[in-house]
Write a structure and sequence with these properties.
mainly alpha; 10 helices
Length: 183
């Protein structure tokens, strides 16, 4: 599966959800259902493309934006944030990678008390869940994805800086800082 095919599936899944920012799990459910009707090789292709996107987005500037938006972002929290970002679709994904501060147009800082952050953990297991349903083995899915994946990232790209330095965050993310940093 190529990148256009991947994003086509994501867009079709997004069409089934009223508010993807608040309901990335709905996008994950729709994707799992769509992938469940495909051949195992196509599901693996989806997983390979997903892994390429994860490598591409493993960047300190995007991590800092996630940290600011969610009030913190552990390693896992950043992975979940990037799952949420996939659920927002290709246009928002590409804009966020070009300029993470553009996420100020997407996020809603006035979430209710029960809101737990911009978290798309369910997106991370769409491929394995669909593959297991179609072919019976999550282990075989991961083996196939790993064999077909040529890109890996052990450390995030970019120059390191202190995510807790408010002046640094304001300089790097002026629009998000207005939403998330108190004066």
């Amino acid at each position: 599966m190529d990148r256009d095919g991947f994003w086509g599936l994501v867009e079709a899944a997004r069409d089934e959800v009223d508010d993807t920012a608040a309901d990335p799990d709905g996008v994950a459910d729709a994707l799992t259902k769509a992938l469940g009707g495909m051949a195992p090789e196509q599901i693996v292709g989806f997983g390979v493309e997903f892994e390429h996107l994860q490598v591409e987005s493993y960047r300190l500037d995007l991590w800092a934006a996630a940290y600011l938006i969610n009030g913190g972002a552990s390693d896992d929290g950043f992975d979940y944030f990037r799952g949420w970002l996939v659920a927002q679709g290709r246009e928002i994904w590409e804009a966020a990678l070009a300029d993470p501060d553009s996420l100020a147009d997407v996020v809603d800082e006035d979430q209710d008390e029960e809101f737990e952050g911009f978290d798309g953990e369910a997106l991370l297991v769409v491929g394995p869940n669909a593959y297991q349903a179609a072919a019976g083995s999550e282990k075989a899915y991961w083996e196939a994805v790993e064999a077909a994946t040529t890109e890996y990232a052990d450390v995030p790209a970019g120059n390191d800086f202190d995510f807790d330095d408010k002046s640094e965050m304001r300089a790097r993310f002026p629009r998000l800082s207005v939403l998330y940093l108190a004066d």
